[in-house]
Specification:
Helix content of chain A: 25-40%
Number of strands of chain A: 14
Largest sheet of chain A: 6 strands, parallel
Shape of chain A: globular
Strand content of chain A: 15-25%
Largest interface: A-B, 42 and 42 residues
Structural class of chain A: alpha/beta
Oligomer: homotetramer
Number of helices of chain A: 13
CATH class of the largest domain in chain A: Alpha Beta
CATH topology of the largest domain in chain A: Rossmann fold
Mean pLDDT of chain A: 93
Distance between the termini of chain A: 35 Å
Number of domains of chain A: 2
CATH superfamily of the largest domain in chain A: NAD(P)-binding Rossmann-like Domain
Radius of gyration of chain A: 20 Å
């Protein structure tokens, strides 16, 4: 950290989300990648040998000659961000946390654990308060684990958050049309989506139904209390490269006008915007009024891929309102979400690094002091 | 009708649904096409000159040299089936009915009129009883108008029908993923669906929300009474050629087990099956238990395109059950639906032709006698 | 063979081409499937347990309870047809041939061997005469190996055959746009073809360039002599489920009119048509004159998937003529090709079965007697 | 031009290419849009009323309130850039040129006229010398017409240019796979490309075959002499949003090694790079060595959409070499091409504006002085 940047190790660096980490962190003002790790046969090779770059644009030059290491401590870094496959994530991430590294993970292994924050900085920054319990329960010292939700869940939860905060949500019915990049590479066989829709994504419906309630729930006395409303999710894979779309109906606790709903969505700002976190979009939610928006190809890159776009907001015959929300599944729904979490942790002074010392210089963390007062965002 | 077949005129013969009429009636045992009409600049040309054939397989030979006529009476036929564009359908179809022709229409113009049946033979064959009122009110003699619903509505309504009949439906929330052929040709611009989903289909949501209630409603004293449950529809266009998929949640009036729901769907048989109508599928509803079905490319042609396929039947967190239903939008959802209606009318002895005489020989209508007893299908 | 049918074992039965074999042989008049084998972990399971059916329509009932066996002799059958993956095909197919089974293979392992026919019955039925050399060289008794070409090669070769026979070809330049089903399942990752074209198919260009010359070459004194013209192939994968399209330019040895070219293509009939083989299309080549045909979705199923369709036939600025040819890659290009080969072998009396006795009753093989006279088709 | 910028009027401003003009000129250092015109029913409306914005990102704010005018002089601007439909382009563009405006056009009307430059600044900047003949022949004063080629032609011609300059080309065989955006909006019906390839693009093959030869030809004594090699083009529409791919075989006049070919392509720099024109890419041609590149989704945006990418460079069995070249059809192939032409004209001091005075301040045109020496680029 000679340059004052937090030194980051990427777990799962050769996968699609791992590549997004490398891309998004290449020119980050506060983070620099110092280690790449992967669980596959790429260990010992250079990143350029081990990894077929699958994002638009070229592999960042800095990463090409880095040697891919096993996803086990020690790694030469202050923190690790992880997009390991779920079958190896649990053991690897736990090992890093135990070895003193803050672990900021996109994997699903720990998301629903009772002492692990399922963090969307706009929504539940206060859930980080569970980390004391986590450390004490698991015997972690400087290390800990913070997760972000499933891709479609993040996108929907962002649209639900201001409505739940202002009006109270009583029920949510969500139907997704999800992009193929959500399954990584090789991921979805083309025969499943050419002239076709696949009405099944393994594990997705229960994830949306359970994670949403934890995200929008409360942390009371270091215990999570789920949001009190049920969520129903039907998930479909469509012939789209990037961009998850969710058709949503909501039942609200209060009678409110459609203008109030629209305003609550369009005016939504929260902790990342206040802290001016590097990856935070100016508008977490963009509301469009055209009759045929949002569309994946047109709206997925809004806000650098970190904004979600809401459209088709109408009163509903059965519930109160309906709308469609869309976001970039591998940016806001995965790699960008993890990085935004890291940025929040850094701003909160929680990136102590494995040495127990702050992983960034105080001068670069002006957001630390006021953080406690902002801890309760809802 | 020298060969005992009902002589059919096609209105809108050059469009996509019109071409399906020509294809499906080519070898029909009880109907023969004797006139082709269209509203566009094709009048006076032969069908092969006027019409670029857009279905798999070649234009049927019998049709090639037929001259396309204006969609105005008289036409040399006993009945007309219509897929005219909605802007010209109303005047043209009314003119034919007034001139004495039974009009069996796929157009939307008359669907919601209070004296017009919105017919799905499996569901509401008894709605034909409104025809007396229609004739008297409009001063028709031998002519009348019978319509079939919108494509996505038919597909969903077939799955709802046995559930409403057995258990009572209290609410329906439907989210569609619809094929591009539903918009005809040229129809949906490719830029709207390549790597994209379009969350808007003009007029589709209100059609599904209103038509479903009329279809599943009751005819009492020659007046339609809507089914008492609300319907919410969100409609999307996806990159699929044929096959509309609908993700459905239902709230039922009774507590029933998932086995009862599955049995009600899988065992569904009704009037067209009893009458062995030529176009009727043996199984109006096919229930599949694989985790990833139905799929448009795999299931749209089930039952010759006249069956709908239900899968992903599960208990729902918010409503009682959820499932996905899929059907072929231009066969069961359009041309096949209209032809099945014509077959029912013929079996019921209602195809009198413009002369007032039966448009088929009595010997070919064995289903007529028992028809009254079967009139109330629900 | 109690019912007089040839008893067939399928090697690679669980793959996409293996499933096509099962589908195409279900109601075959002369063949019946008596054994299913696969190289993967499905051995010992029933076919319905081992195999996720990926073709439109349901798995044939007869196959469901059959137990999948290892692809090693003995199998309870007279002949084997194979679509094994190329890495296991060589050893397995050789073992079956050595054990006395005629092996009719879609795999690439033996295609270019100097004693193995690369058979397209319309083009080079006389190449079967190499089998004597094959048996003697390899020490086979009743067994032998016959192969069919690569999918895109078959489709192009059918269009080249009548032109080479009548006018002589001097050079061929071919550019393909190939369907994803050609790579099997899971095959091509959807991210490679959504809003994309992949300009690379492993091994395809050299296959087209070498196989074409063997197919259209001559068998002289039991030695293959390649056709004397060079072939250039550039191969691309496009977002199409089924149907390979090839844009072709040809340089001919003679100056001929475009009408002569069209007639040579459209009038093409050969051995399978003369023998009325069950799977043989009436027209191996269909020539269409519309400006925008052939198209995969419209033309791939022509002739039950066994015809190829030629269109866009024009004089060329650089070579003599150009055209586009399209065919169904998993039917004419794979499973149907293998079965047509089996039908030819049966008609020629070459299906002796592993016992050395004819694998079909003489009464069912009327084509045997005249076969020698027809042996030289070109 | 109070701020020293050239004042631009857009003809065809509401179409897809017109929207690209608006997008690309929004922040241009040397041009500003001062008039919008269109031939359709949008005249008299504001641009935001008249135009459904179909590009990713929002309509530039500056354009929203501008009123769309008829495409007839006078317009309040120094020059016009045009993407009018070809049926109206000829009369409108001629009228502007006659009225004194430099007309820089993407339309096809004048491309092949014997006194009109068909300009690609990297290739034939010297063709601008024909403008004197044009003005004198047509009686233009300060006005003139400069065109850019068809989209697929530009992309291919860029790859051919250095090879023709260094080695001499003797023949070209090109097979295209073109994106749907090339046809504008609504353009290609989705039914034509879902699970399909369309082997026909109206007028495209003759355009590629004739325009290429003019572009790569010579201007001698104010007369164009076509490049002496024949071009064969087969054109196909595939299910891709943006990015035209061309599979190319070339026959060269000299025997050269593949390294020489690769170097000629990769090292290509020309007039726009020397003049540092704002829209000029640093590398007009990017050569990639991966086995599966270029791909439309991965490579179309290279160089801001102004570079073309070459890959799959191999010796060819029939001709000398083959390769695949890909470029962004609406940027390098249309709007960006027109703007680059405008930038070259400005740098050459040829944007006199309708008043006959330079349409830019001398201080902003440092490239003018050395321009004559660079006028002959080949």
């Amino acid at each position: 950290m000679s340059n004052g940047k937090v030194r980051v190790g990427i777990l799962g660096a050769t996968g699609m989300v791992g590549q997004r980490f490398v891309q998004l962190l290449e020119k980050h003002p506060d983070f620099e990648i110092t280690a790449l790790a992967a669980s596959d046969r790429s260990q010992g090779k250079t990143y350029s040998e081990a990894c077929t770059w699958r994002l638009v644009g070229d592999m960042p030059a800095f990463a090409k000659a880095m040697v891919v290491q096993p996803p086990q401590p020690p790694l030469d870094c202050d923190i690790v961000v992880s997009s390991l496959p779920s079958d190896v994530a649990r053991a690897s991430e736990e090992a890093f946390a135990r070895a003193g590294y803050p672990v900021i993970s996109n994997a699903s292994s720990f998301r629903m654990d009772e002492d692990v924050p399922l963090l969307i900085p706009e929504i539940n920054a206060d859930h980080l308060n569970v980390l004391d319990r986590q450390k004490s329960k698991r015997g972690f010292t400087t290390g800990y684990i913070v997760t972000n939700p499933n891709c479609s869940t993040i996108i929907m939860a962002l649209a639900l958050a201001p409505l739940h905060a202002k009006f109270g949500i009583e029920a949510v019915i969500a139907t997704t049309m999800q992009a193929v990049s959500g399954a990584g590479y090789p991921g979805v066989p083309s025969l499943d989506v050419v002239d076709n829709v696949l009405p099944f994504i393994d594990g997705e419906e229960p994830k949306m139904e359970s994670e949403t309630r934890k995200i929008l729930g409360r942390l009371e006395n270091s215990a999570f209390e789920n949001a009190p409303f049920p969520v129903s999710a039907q998930c479909h894979r469509v012939n789209v490269a990037d961009g998850h779309m969710v058709a949503v109906r909501i039942k609200l606790a209060k009678r409110v006008s459609i203008e109030e709903v629209r305003d609550a969505l369009a005016s939504y700002r929260s902790v990342p915007q206040e802290l001016k976190l590097h990856t935070a979009p100016e508008h977490p939610i963009i509301v469009r009024n055209e009759k045929d928006r949002p569309q994946p190809r047109m709206d997925r890159d809004a806000g650098g891929g970190m904004s979600v776009t809401v459209g088709r907001l109408f009163p509903d015959n059965v519930f109160d309102y309906r709308f469609v929300v869309l976001g970039h599944n591998t940016i806001r729904g995965a790699a960008g979400a993890t990085i935004l979490n890291a940025e929040l942790l850094r701003a909160r002074g929680l990136l102590l690094g494995k040495s127990g010392a702050p992983a960034q210089s105080p001068a670069q963390a002006p957001a630390q002091a006021p953080a406690p007062a902002q801890a309760r965002v809802r």
